[in-house]
């Protein structure tokens, strides 16, 4: 799944939705697209790097090929070369980062697209870049440049086949992935532990954590907290409920716990996010 440009058909989120957040300088254009339904057809003039923060389902096609159903994992890394037409549609969508180099060339461009890749370095850089984009008035151009370059290098390594792969990822089959994602979706607002996820797959907690990170680019703990934050973000936008109530409804142990996670991962506290 790769979103390039966005034509919205209808929003699946009631109430307010987050805006498209954009950063641009002489070299880079970075867009943080909100979680909402979309339909787009696009042929980029320059290569595009993408990163999906949420699991998504829909239909897509590359380079004029026939439409295919997709079920993309959370934290999926993508690359689209210049001139490669993309069609993509999703009824639910997901938060998505799009990075375009406006001038110069990628270090070692190739004419091959990829999508829904798990890459630990790319995942870490994409989450840090999202944090910078959300900061708005206090963005650091040097940090944004460095993170965009990190993602560019990660894409080049995958295209060249030089990125080392962790064999533990082979244990995280599609069936196991769906099982874990279903448990997190059903129980993120409860006291869910990594040990319980591992037990559901009959794996040790240590090996499960390694296999999960190899497959998703994030630890199981990160995945649970990411889902809680996403739920809290929706509630902050759609309701005027007290922050303590939103924290408990989203699975955080307290208002303070939610505030700490928002500050660490998004660069702002929940009350600041609500005002944006």
UniProtKB/TrEMBL annotation:
Q: Does the keyword Magnesium apply?
A: no
Query: Which intervals of the chain form a coiled coil?
Result: none
Q: Which residues form the HTH araC/xylS-type domain?
A: 178-276
Q: Which UniProt keywords apply?
A: DNA-binding, Transcription, Transcription regulation
- GO molecular function terms here? DNA-binding transcription factor activity; sequence-specific DNA binding
The answer, when asked if Cytoplasm is one of the entry's keywords, is no
Task: State what protein this is by name.
Answer: AraC family transcriptional regulator
